[in-house]
């Protein structure tokens, strides 16, 4: 009587399979119900056997490569897939068939990712929980996509992984005085970088150091990400418009959605001078800044240490820009169009209003 239930004078058959809707049928006699159940079970087994054979032929390496080729993820995502490939290769799972990738092997991947620091395993350092969650999410997307596209009925073991808790709240705030201290420290960066241990020693071009004050102020006044800044072109700066703005093209936006950023009045003179000077020597569609995003991070990191700070990241400039917008009374929904955040949860972790700002907002609202 398995899969068969008696409902009054009738017999109901119900068969469930992962990835498929429940298959049901109602019959007048038990014999008819049993025959239907047996026929359906045999059909499903045959179909599942084909799926298993197909899943045996598709490796994790193929699934990842096919996903990248079809979806064309952003550069930031490609770095995650690169790490996924290295970890799977380290565990000798890269050429493993999908049919053999189970929960136990998925957990092995997570354990290695927690210890995989920079280019390999470190017993002294652990990556942030958010990094592990990204790893789980990206590998899960690959498996979901392959299972759907290949019409497989196998399970995605990443769905059963318990994700580590991520605390995204950011309480660090940066003042204008601190920003100026970091900018003032930039000329000392080359000498400092040459004094580092051999494996960490770096050398910077003069042009990279000269453009850093503008990049820092641009990030602070627009909330732009590094990857967006380095792809800006001179003709993206619309300085002659009635309300000067910065055009963020879909192709450079992390969210793949175009947006316009109104240039703040305090920043406009600095921005105008930089762009006009650049236009004198470059074509209108030339890059506004010709610098690698990793170089931006590296120079900023050294400068903030020389300025006497610890733990201030370049991305915190985006945090500060967002927080200042909200403190100034810009509605959250409007702030999201400015910064390019996709969800309220994403922007919520950046908007830590000072008590004075909260009081001002309440007073303006008449509450």
Q: Explain this structure to me?
A:
Helix 3 packs across helix 5 and helix 8 packs parallel to helix 12. By secondary structure, the protein is mostly helical. Helices cover 51% and strands 8% of the residues. Strands 1-2-3 form a 3-stranded antiparallel sheet, with helices on one face. Strands 6-7-8 form a 3-stranded antiparallel sheet.
List key phrases describing it:
3 domains; DNA polymerase, domain 1; single chain; 3-stranded antiparallel beta sheet; hpI Integrase, Chain A; mainly alpha; 367 residues
**Name given to the CATH architecture of the largest domain:** Orthogonal Bundle
CATH H level of the largest domain: which superfamily?
A: Intergrase catalytic core
Poorly predicted sequence stretches spanning 5 or more consecutive residues:
350-359
The level-1 CATH class of the largest domain: Mainly Alpha
Q: What integer value in Å does the Rg equal?
A: 28 Å
**Fraction of residues in β-strands:** 5-15%
Task: State the CATH topology of the largest domain.
Answer: hpI Integrase, Chain A
Q: Number of helical runs? A: 15
Shape: elongated
Count of strand segments: 8
List the helices and strands and how they pair.
Layout (H helix, E strand, L loop, with lengths): L3 E4 L2 E6 L7 E5 L2 H28 L2 H12 L3 H16 L12 H13 E2 L2 E2 L7 H21 L26 H10 L3 H6 L11 H17 L3 H4 L7 E2 L6 E4 L10 E4 L5 H12 L13 H14 L9 H12 L4 H8 L4 H5 L6 H11 L2
Antiparallel strand pairs: 1-2, 2-3, 4-5, 6-7, 7-8
Helix pairs in contact: 2-3, 2-5, 3-5, 6-11, 8-11, 8-12
